[in-house]
Amino acid sequence: MHPRLDYTKAAPDAFQAVYALERYVSEQSGIEPRLIHLLKLRASQINHCAYCVDLHTKEARRDGLSEQWIALVCVWRESPLFDARERALLAWVEAVTLVAVEAVPDEIFDGMRAHFTDEEITKLTVAIGTINIWNRLSVGFQVTHPIDQA
Predict the structure, then answer these.
(1) Of 13, 54, 76, 86, which residue is the least packed, with the fewest Cβ within 10 Å?
(2) What is the pLDDT of residues 31-49, one digit of tens each?
(3) Whole-angstrom Cα distance, residue 11 to residue 122?
């Protein structure tokens, strides 16, 4: 696979706009880092974005999340590792990321409401939208992840 184009150079203003949204989500939104890692990793898995899965796995590990936690995000329904709050968010991430396939069911929204305020739901949804933008840029333009040296 070869990168199709460097979107950061092709449209630097567009890149900066997305990057500003990323900075808001990661630095100013008040969303706890564990939840940011969770939603970025799961959305990137759904979107088959190897670059982002690699990046967000490394970031989660750097921030102290366990190898087991990272590895089981993709099979969260089958693991008792995730608490009710994380499960509500994971279901929301999947529904919002796949919104073109199926509308977001009321029961998934109700699950979010049981664990998060309206403000938190809004900010988490903006974070989901932001990682979906990054995924689409990386997948669409075939951005390749770095290969780690053994």
Answers:
(1) 13
(2) 999 999 999 999 999 999 9
(3) 28
